[in-house]
Design goal:
By secondary structure, the chain is mainly beta. It has 2 helices and 24 strands.
């Protein structure tokens, strides 16, 4: 499914729309949190949300069971000169269903008051087993655009982000707190005029490459040796006018969900048919892909 946060204006309360290829479109409520929140990350049925009025307050919830956990405040919140209100540069959620455990990651560049970031990358990791945050520091020279930060994928016990310029993938191993750089397919890196988007495909890292006429789906077949395989090549001729603003959100072997400025589309890979799932009828201030997340239901108990 695809979960989209839609608002008429920044001042009004957002509504959550869930687009499911089998069940259609439904509205999802997070009113049980008793707070005005923004969805920051999604993983295996859980959502990580940040409080809008109370900066630095985070929740992890299961909207299907309406259970949630209010995370303890971390003593140190990573900030940058671009985000002086305490919002982390990166927010990630990793949820391991087999052991019923989740981690929340807040990471950002250290900034001494009145100075530019000094290259020190501070990472805070919340562990649901201990109900505590742990901190570690590294030195990264990586930059993330607004949408790169929103695209985080949890596979192989690690969180993955695509760096700006689509030069490589940066992963964080949650078992040992180690950052790793993962190479992209050569065609994605060196071919001009392409956009790359990081998604998951049946537990594997996947990159969807979009050019003016084609959508190519790559999947990582061997995680350790970083071997990529071209899974599919899809013509975009039928939706040519939407291509400049299209953004892949989630996929399975059967479907690919994509958001545009005002619509959620689904591409059926076997029949090669495009279908509109949802369309905004009003003048939403932000494109739908700005606040869209992959979502699947689970019975994970997060309280």
């Amino acid at each position: 499914m695809v979960l989209v946060e839609v608002s008429d204006s920044p001042e009004l309360k957002s509504s959550l729309i869930c687009a499911d290829n089998l069940r259609g479109v439904s509205e999802l409520s997070l009113d049980f949190l008793k707070d005005r929140v923004k969805v920051r990350a999604s993983c295996n049925g859980l959502l990580c949300c940040s409080s809008i009025p109370d900066k630095g307050v985070y929740y992890v919830c299961n909207p299907m069971t309406r259970e949630f956990r209010l995370l303890p405040r971390s003593r140190e919140r990573p900030v940058t000169r671009f985000y002086p209100d305490g919002e982390a540069t990166l927010v990630g959620l990793g949820c391991n269903l087999s052991v019923q455990k989740f981690n929340v990651v807040l990471a950002g560049y250290h900034r001494t008051f009145g100075h530019r970031p000094d290259g020190t990358f501070i990472c805070m990791v919340f562990d649901s087993d201990t109900n505590k945050w742990r901190k570690f520091v590294s030195f990264q020279d990586d930059r993330f655009t607004l949408m790169n930060r929103n695209q985080v994928v949890f596979v192989h016990g690690s969180l993955h982000w695509l760096t700006s310029g689509c030069s490589y993938i940066l992963s964080l191993d949650l078992n040992c707190d180690v950052w790793r750089k993962i190479s992209l397919p050569d065609e994605v890196i060196y071919r001009a005029g392409n956009r790359a988007h990081l998604v998951e495909l049946d537990g594997c890292l996947s990159v969807i490459q979009i050019s003016e006429a084609w959508m190519k789906i790559w999947a990582m077949k061997d995680y350790e040796s970083e071997q990529w395989h071209l899974e599919d090549r899809v013509s975009l001729r039928c939706i040519r006018g939407m291509v400049p603003g299209i953004f892949p959100i989630s996929q399975t072997r059967e479907y690919v969900f994509l958001a545009t400025y005002k619509q959620v589309l689904v591409y059926q890979r076997k029949s090669r048919v495009w279908k509109e799932m949802y369309s905004v009828k009003n003048s939403s201030p932000l494109p739908l892909w700005f606040s869209a997340h992959a979502f699947r239901t689970s019975i994970f108990l997060c309280n």
